[in-house]
Amino acid sequence: MSFFTLVGVEFKKIRRSKIFFLLAAAAVILWIPSILNANMNFGMQAEGISPEHNFFIQGFMGMAWFMFPASMVVGTVLLSQTERANKGILKMLALPIHTAKLCMAKFTVLLSLAAAQILMMTGMYYISAAISSGTQDYHFILPPLFVLQEISLIFLSAIPMISFFWMLSVCIQTPIFSIGIGLASIVPSVLIINTKAWFAYPMSYPFFVITSEYGKLAANLDTAQVELIPWIPAATAITILCLVISCLRFGQAERR
To answer: I need a surface site. Which of 19, 21, 30, 231 has the fewest CB within 10 A?
Structure first.
């Protein structure tokens, strides 16, 4: 069975799961406060940022800090549990398929889910911006090219974090513990981005990236900027390490 066929099989398994509903619900919830408090964006002009840029950045800061990582934690565990619930993992392991290949197929599905949620949140941004434009009599909608660039940065920066969450779900068999550790790991990111060692903590990457973009757009705000060195080497090493551990540990508990 080819890798792409295996990925297709994994997508079929989650077609009727609650994962998509969870991701969509989080996307809707994220932008409700932005619509209700749209008038507050005009108060940030003193900081040198336009209301439309502030509307976008504030919404995606909330997404990058907690909503998106938390959705990935829960979604990762649900993806892992789809096999364990009915002991389907035992059937998959009985097939002549390398466990590392199966593990990476599931991780590919997880990355696709992450991309899907970011697109959902982007769609909700445009809906929210359109609603706020009508209620505030001000054009809050930004050009698609700018929005695409920002969400692409968030997605790419989130890959090491997602690989860490996947490793947790593979290594920790009890869902409540896996979710608890994953959610607990998100909270310190708001503090860690203010330290020089932020690049060593993958859960802080998406929030750091969007915060640095805030500093670029707000002329009177000084925020730390992304330095590719040592970030890229550290992010690459963390991603590879988490995936190697995941591939080595995948299916071990079921074989006992």
So the answer is: 21
Burial code (b: 16+ CB inside 10 Å, e: under 16) for 92-116 equals: beeeeeebeebbbbbbbbbbebbeb
| Alpha-carbon gap, residue 117 to 171, rounded angstroms | 25
Distance set, CA 74 to CA 9, 43, 69, 133, 245 (Å): 21, 35, 9, 33, 20
Token digits of residue 52: 């439309």
Please tell me the pTM assigned to this model. 0.91
Question: What angle in degrees, to the nearest 10, is found between the helix axes of 175-186 and 144-171?
Answer: 140
What are the structure tokens assigned to 243, written together?
A: 């995936």
Using the predicted structure, report yes or no on whether residue 90 has a pLDDT greater than 60.
no
Report the amino acid identity of residue 81.
Answer: Q
Q: What angle do CA 35, 220, 44 make, to 5 degrees?
A: 20
